[in-house]
Specification:
The complex is a heterotrimer of chains A (about 160), B (about 290) and C (about 750).
Chain A lengths: L1 E4 L2 E4 L7 H8 L18 E4 L2 E4 L12 E3 L1 H4 L7 H9 L8 H14 L5 H8 L9 H13 L1 H6 L3
Parallel strand pairs in A: 1-5
Antiparallel strand pairs in A: 1-2, 3-4, 3-5
Helix pairs in contact in A: 3-6
Chain B lengths: L3 E3 L4 H11 L3 E4 L3 H8 L7 E4 L9 E4 L2 E5 L4 H6 L1 H6 L1 H8 L4 H6 L2 H7 L6 H7 L3 E6 L2 E6 L4 E3 L2 E2 L6 E8 L6 E7 L10 E9 L5 E9 L6 E2 L1 H5 L8 H14 L10 H21 L3
Chain C lengths: L11 H6 L14 E7 L5 E7 L1 H4 L4 E6 L8 E2 L6 E2 L5 E2 L5 E7 L2 H10 L1 E6 L6 H4 L15 E9 L2 H7 L2 E9 L11 E6 L4 E5 L4 H12 L6 E4 L16 H10 L5 E4 L2 H4 L4 E2 L1 E10 L5 E13 L5 H10 L9 E10 L5 E2 L6 H19 L3 H8 L18 H14 L12 E13 L3 E11 L4 E5 L8 H13 L6 E4 L17 H28 L7 E3 L2 E3 L4 E3 H7 L4 E11 L15 E13 L5 E13 L4 H21 L4 E2 L2 E2 L18 E8 L16 H13 L10 H13 L1
Parallel strand pairs in C: 1-14, 12-13, 15-19, 17-18, 22-23, 29-32
Antiparallel strand pairs in C: 1-7, 2-6, 2-8, 3-7, 4-5, 9-18, 10-16, 11-12, 11-14, 16-17, 20-28, 21-22, 21-27, 24-25, 25-26, 28-29, 30-31
Helix pairs in contact in C: 6-7, 10-17, 13-14, 14-15, 16-17
The chains are: A alpha+beta (about 160), B alpha+beta (about 290), C alpha+beta (about 750).
Chain lengths: ~160, ~290, ~750
């Protein structure tokens, strides 16, 4: 089957596996990770056609033909996405296992709602767990990102 | 391990596949239930009949006889539908509190109802709204009121080769008020301890013309207590009456026990939240 | 000055781009999938574990069972009672009985199902106090009453002191079984090369792993190399020894093919837990508001194997007394075997359970005696110079300040708009103060290498698990040498190149490794200065290092030049910091810790009296942080501790049925989400610039649960003594109160 990941098409063997496993094992995209396998923690978040989904609960076949965005497609060390820059500036992480999930969810949020209220941010991110407890810095980072000029540039029209 | 992943493009093709494979096949819509069950080895089908490529069944439409929601509508789309928010804000709210945003992006209404998870949110609310499920099977289409659709834990009225295609909610009177309460006892992100769906209608004197209250999450399937609802007919919902109705709910229903609360606690919470739901429909808005 | 700056984490870019190489990402050529087969019975004789049929599954390379283990089959921190896999007896549901290495997960799963296992079930016991009764099942024959350790503290004449009391209070507080629940599970991989082993593991204790694995394999320690990547959370659950012995034994059995084990979330719940505990405090007070005596009895549920409990139970003893002046103190701290998974350190180790007890009792006493809970604490909190129940004199303690700052935090900011629940909410304030020891005997070594390009590499076995340990060490290195922090690289842990460190746990690293790094830096600077002196024609005493240069009054020379002009391509130093304190095993008298960890919290709660649901509206936390290395990272630790602490306070509990966890997943085992945090959470580091480098990893966590319980009592007059403080418990208590 053909998976469209981070703007490139990849041919992967057709087998009953989760999208999470295919991303990690076949495509070597290690940023997406498993934390709970029941869709609760958000460590496995990917964007599919712009929407955050739990890749641990999606069969790869279900996502064939759709645009899949993983953390690797959001930005790189040389070219950080404004959301990543905001997370960096606000120190919105500790062990950072949950960070790709939070970054992707934030990107999706700001695409949908460019000026979210504090409550809207909290509700949207509610399904992402951070055991280290970085929530306060994360909320601040999202707020900062939503106000940044840079983020308005990268958001889809 | 490879399970055949079949992607029919319409429901009749899906029906044909189910007919062909029988017990070897499992229907998958969004996948939040089915993929979880596969991972936990609770099911081992040889074939998955995916409804993911079927077009035209994700809609929220107001028709003369009521609101029609296609079974393949994702909960997140239902939650955000302007038509639904206009028709019944409490139902839009109900969809908005299911799981988290990822779950709602993936799960479909049909899948959610077919899974018949006792701790799901939509069933109780849809039950009081008088919703009906449209089921498509080899023999044709039939309608089942949701009050008769949930039969037990993870068990519905769906026959082996039937698929839920649409949910129809009858038009609500202009004066009707609805409310949904989801009470979580541990984390705010957790599954509910008790869920209450409420619908009420009052005449211009404030006397109750219709009252429906369904309890979910504390019981095996959404439950109404008609004898309690009947106490309200023709009456104003005084504090005393509200207490009597909620007491009757607490007394009558057989509650279950899980990590979110004991059977005793759930009875107590039924009393509290039926009361709060009654107060909300009495004092609040649609 | 690098210390005191909020430098971003060294690998922050990797963290926000998802490129940090966690253990779970490791891939090696020919790597096999490892799978553990686990006991279904809580207690049984293992009559047969026959892999014959399982070995026939295509793709299965090797299967490890108890039969493969020779005399080195058992390990444990002090009592070697735990088998690499179970040998002839299983003692908890989930105990490993075999391990499989296969080419695919599918093959491993098929093989697991074909393993021929026969149990002869034995009666089991799950409750610690039940386990010590005569007639209950004995788990290990050497310990006929299931007590594997009894730590004692005896200070002062207890009976006489109780006789002097005007009132005596006796209360029992309980904490349930819980799980550390790091988002990254336990993961380990290993490869045997015929003579030695390379192991990669998500562990907080690389050198401990090396020692134990070498023992299991019967090889010299230097034949085992342990590499630890950054962890996706540890919180004590990856401290000490977990799956490493099994992974090592499996790696040898495959004959050289590397194998990697990744535990599932459900497996996490049977791998390590937080000790369930029952703590009874008998405390005597006088009407003048002072203490006379305290007697503490703690039953720690250690699970089926002693594991790290022989280290933790004595620490729990010392941590159970509390930060108050009490002339006579006796403690009996018991570690007890039960048919549950082994318990280990859980953030705020042992202090979580003990602070719950002593801080809850503080308010019970205050209310009964008619004293203000805050004043009662302030009157009795230790100050520097006071003597603790171990006989040691306390230095640099700031409990009063921690509490005052926390309390003031609630006073100053106005209460946010209420929950607006039709008058069913009641508000209350509560406090908690924590006193915690760190490890008394431990050692940290650091190696520093200055290269001729002016960069410095710090080799350290301190584990980076999100607390920013490596960043802090880089800052300390930079300060010690007089170099910009950008010039510092941190490498490790890798036992082949990084020197010894006891463990990254008990919030010891900033202090212990920090001191080792300072010592190493000082030594390296001294050598640089000595080498530079002739070049600058200035005596060493008149030189200092600054900004990568050795600086004299009128001239300076870069480190790079110092090396080059001395014909050196690098300069290296090894430094160490160690403490070796101990207490008498019969009396607990001596020195129990190099310094004390201090934290406090103040909570404002709202109690919905109809449902019992408690909302923490506001929380202020304060901890003594000594000389803060990185203010932002310290803030994250403090905030993170409070948020983490909400878990055991109000929602975390492993629910068991016949010794089996019924909720081994994150949907049914609740951990705090973003919607559970207080609307206002402020944490403060109380600093002392001239002070020591201080740990910060746990201090504001233990006060959370008692502060909430105390606030509930303030709000609605009920006392919950059993964690977690669920809405159901509060409602039951409210009902009982109104019935009386």
């Amino acid at each position: 089957m053909i998976l469209n990941v981070n703007g490139s098409k990849h041919k992967v063997r057709t087998e009953t596996r989760t999208l999470l496993d295919v991303l990690r094992e076949d495509l070597g995209l290690m940023g997406t990770k498993e934390g709970c396998s029941v869709g609760m923690c958000g460590a496995c978040t990917v964007l599919v056609d712009g929407k955050p989904l739990s890749s641990c609960l999606l069969l790869a076949e279900q996502a064939a033909g759709m645009e899949i965005l993983t953390i690797e497609g959001v930005g790189s060390a040389e070219n950080l996405h404004p959301v990543q820059q905001a997370f960096l500036d606000e120190g919105a992480f500790q062990c950072a296992y949950c960070t790709p999930g939070f970054v992707l969810t934030t990107v999706a949020l700001l695409n949908e709602n460019p000026s979210p209220s504090d409550n809207e941010i909290r509700e949207y991110l509610a399904g992402n767990l951070c055991r280290c407890g970085s929530y306060q810095n994360i909320l601040r980072a999202v707020k900062v990102a939503s106000k940044s000029e840079a983020v308005k540039v990268v958001l889809k029209p | 391990m490879s399970i055949d992943f079949l992607e029919p493009t319409d429901f009749s093709e899906a029906m044909a596949l189910l007919s062909e494979y029988g017990d070897d096949a499992k229907v998958i819509a969004g996948g939040t239930s089915v993929v979880l069950m596969l991972q936990q080895k609770l099911i081992a089908p040889n074939v998955l009949v995916s409804l993911g490529r079927i077009e035209g069944w994700d809609y929220v439409r107001l028709e003369p006889d009521g609101l029609h929601i296609g079974a393949l509508t994702h909960l997140r789309d239902a939650e955000r539908s302007p038509v639904l928010r206009q028709f019944c804000p409490a139902l839009a709210y109900t969809f908005s509190v299911v799981g988290n945003v990822r779950v709602r992006n993936q799960a479909t209404l049909g899948g959610n109802l077919s899974a018949a998870d006792y701790a799901a949110d939509p069933p109780a609310m849809l039950t009081v709204l008088g919703a009906r499920a449209r089921l498509l099977g080899p023999g044709g289409t039939r309608e089942v009121p949701l009050s008769e659709f949930f039969l037990g834990f993870y068990t519905t009225a769906l026959e082996p080769e039937e698929i839920l295609t649409e949910v129809i909610i009858p038009v609500l009177p202009e004066t009707a008020r609805a409310a949904y309460f989801k009470y979580t006892s541990l984390s705010a992100e957790g599954r509910p301890c008790v869920a209450i769906g409420a619908l009420a209608d009052f005449d211009s004197d404030g006397k109750c013309k219709d009252l429906r209250i369904a309890v979910g999450a504390a019981v095996e399937t959404p439950q109404r207590v008609e004898s309690a609802e009947a106490l309200a007919y023709g009456q104003t919902l005084t504090g005393e009456l509200v207490a009597a109705i909620s007491e009757e709910y607490a007394r009558t229903l057989d509650t279950l026990s899980d990590v979110r609360g004991s059977a005793w606690y759930r009875k107590e919470m039924i009393r509290v939240f039926v009361k709060r739901a009654l107060e909300e429909v009495r004092d609040g808005h649609r | 000055m690098a210390i005191g700056k909020s430098v971003p984490m060294l690998d922050a870019l990797a963290r926000v781009t998802g490129t940090l190489d966690y253990m779970i990402n490791l891939r090696l050529p020919g790597m096999l999938v490892g799978k553990i087969v686990r006991s279904l019975a809580p207690h049984a004789r293992l009559l047969k574990v026959d892999p014959t049929d399982a070995l026939l599954v295509p793709g299965v390379v090797a299967i490890l069972t108890g039969a493969d283990l020779g005399e080195n089959a058992f390990y444990g921190a002090a009592i070697k009672d735990q088998g690499v896999v179970a040998v002839d007896r299983v003692r908890y549901v989930g105990e490993p009985i075999a391990a499989i290495a296969a080419e695919s997960e599918q093959a491993a799963e098929e093989a697991a199902m074909l393993l021929d296992v026969e149990y002869e079930e034995l009666p089991a016991v799950f409750d610690a106090q039940e386990a010590i009764q005569p007639g209950t099942p004995v788990l290990h024959e050497n310990y006929p009453n299931n007590i594997f350790i009894h730590s004692k503290l005896r200070h002062g004449d207890l009976q006489a002191a109780f006789a002097e009391a005007d009132e005596i209070f006796e209360d029992t507080f309980t904490s349930p079984l819980a799980q550390q629940a790091s988002l990254e599970p336990h993961v380990a991989a290993a490869q045997w090369d015929g003579n030695g082993l390379t192991m990669w593991t998500a562990s907080q204790a690389p050198y401990m792993v090396r020692r134990v694995v070498a023992g299991i394999l019967g090889v010299e320690e230097k034949s085992v190399r342990v590499i630890v990547p950054p962890l996706g959370g540890g919180y004590g659950g990856k401290g000490h020894i977990r799956i490493e012995p099994l992974v090592a034994a499996m790696a040898r059995k495959t004959g050289g093919q590397p194998v990697k084990f990744v535990l599932s979330r459900a497996e996490e719940f049977v791998t390590v837990t937080k000790h369930a505990a029952s703590i009874t405090l008998k405390t005597g007070v006088k009407r003048d508001g002072t203490f006379t005596a305290r007697q503490v009895t703690i039953y720690w549920n250690g699970g089926a194997y002693a594991d790290a409990s022989p280290l933790l139970v004595p620490q729990g003893m010392v941590r159970s007394v509390g930060p108050y002046r009490i002339p006579a103190v006796h403690v009996d701290s018991y570690g007890i075997y039960t048919n549950l998974p082994p318990a280990g350190a859980y953030r705020g180790a042992m202090s979580s359970q003990t602070t719950w007890a002593y801080e809850s009792q503080m308010d019970i006493i205050a209310r009964k005696m008619g004293w203000d809970p805050l004043e009662f604490r302030l009157k009795n909190l230790f100050v520097s110079g006071d003597q603790f129940a171990t006989g040691e004199i306390l230095h640099d303690v700031h409990f009063v300040e921690c509490l005052e700052v926390s309390a003031k935090g609630l006073e100053l900011s106005p209460s946010p708009g209420g929950r607006g629940v039709r008058g069913e909410g009641k508000r209350g304030l509560g406090y908690g103060v924590m006193m915690k020891s760190t490890v008394s005997t431990s050692k940290s070594q650091a190696r520093m290498k200055l290269a001729d390009d002016g960069t410095v590499t710090l080799f350290t076995s301190t584990v980076e698990m999100g607390q920013g340990a490596h960043t802090a060490m880089a800052q300390i290195t930079a300060e010690a040498l007089g170099l910009p922090v950008e010039m510092v690289r941190v490498v490790g842990p890798d036992t082949e190149v990084t020197p010894f460190d006891s463990i990254t746990s008990a919030s010891r690293s900033t202090n212990m490794m920090g001191n080792a790094v300072m010592a190493t830096g000082a030594a390296l600077t001294k050598r640089l200065i000595e080498l530079a002196a002739p070049l600058l024609e200035t005596p060493p005493e008149e030189l200092r290092s600054e900004n990568g240069h050795v600086v004299a009054e009128e001239a300076s020379i870069s480190f790079t030049d110092v090396l080059k002009r001395n014909g050196l391509d690098s300069l290296e130093e090894l430094g160490e910091y160690a403490t070796a304190f101990k207490v008498d095993p019969e009396t607990g008298q001596g020195v129990s810790t190099p310094h004390w960890h201090q934290g406090a919290g103040a909570a404002e709660v709202d109690v919905d009296t109809e449902t019992g649901r408690v909302t923490v509206l506001r929380y202020t936390a304060a901890s003594f942080a000594g000389r803060v290395v990185n203010p932002r990272l310290a803030q994250l630790q403090n905030d993170g501790n409070v948020i983490f602490g909400l878990g055991p306070a109000v929602m975390e509990e492993i629910v068991l049925d016949g010794g089996q966890p019924t909720n081994p997943n994150l949907a049914d085992y609740a951990i705090p989400s973003i919607r559970d945090i207080p609307a206002e959470l402020v944490s403060v580091c109380i600093e002392s610039e001239q002070g020591e480098l201080h740990g910060i990893g746990e201090m504001t966590l233990p006060p959370v649960a008692p502060a909430i319980a105390n606030a509930i009592e303030d709000a609605v007059g009920v006392r919950i003594k059993d964690l977690p403080i669920t809405a159901e418990k509060v409602l039951r208590a409210l009902r009982e109160k109104s019935e009386r």
